Every structure is written in structure tokens, then in C-alpha cells.
Write the C-alpha cells for this entry.
Amino acid sequence: MASYEDLLVKAYNSIPQKAQSHERFEVPRVESFIQGSKTIVKGFNLLMNNMRREKKHFLKYLTKETASPITEGNNQLIISGKIGAIQLNRLIESYFNQFVLCPECKKPDTKVVTQDGIRMLKCEACGAVKPIAGL
Ligand SMILES: [Zn+2]
């Protein structure tokens, strides 16, 4: 049985993405559901492929933001706590904004480089470089 929140997410996802230009990167969304006291997040491998960041780093971020232990396996994440799908996707979007998308051109074509011991986000599309907040 679909929860109210599931329906909300479904409604949100089915809104046609008009005026979607090829320039604009869409932060990937994940599907999740709550099972008992845990949250199961599906499609984790695809998310990591889109993100192109260290799995360890993302899991650390998510653990901190949800204040819940997280285990990973079989293309899914298991969060030891109830995290709504909307909140979860917001956290993922926030991760992309902080650690993946270029602050200048908003493209995801970035990589993490270390300069003088400081971790920087370097954009391969426009060349912008910015320090990454510690985590
Ligand atoms: Zn850029």
C-alpha cells in the first residue's frame, strides 16, 4: 500500500519536465520506502555512477545528515531510521550542490583534486576551482 508521501513523490516525478534544456543537469532522484524502523533506498549503484564521487564520502555525508547508521549492499542502502523520500532526495540534491556541481556553470563534470593539501572541486567544463567544505 502506497503511503501518502510515496504518492507525493510519484506525483512530483510525473510532472512533465518542460523546457528541459540539454545544458541543465538534473540531480538524480532515488526511490525509497520505509520498512519497520528502517529506510530502504533503491538504485544506489546508479546514483553513485551519476555522482562519480567516493562512495565512502557520500555515505559519511548521509550518515551525518540523517544522524542514522547506514549499511550498503545489493544496490541499495539501508538507513537505520525513518527518512522520508522527499527529505532523502533533498539531501542528495544538497550533496550534489556542495560536492558535485560546478559553482560557476552548474555542470556535473567536476573532479576532486588536492592542491597544497586542500581538497578542491575542479570543473572540467569551465575550469572553475573551489575549495570543498570539510567533511
Ligand atoms: Zn564549470
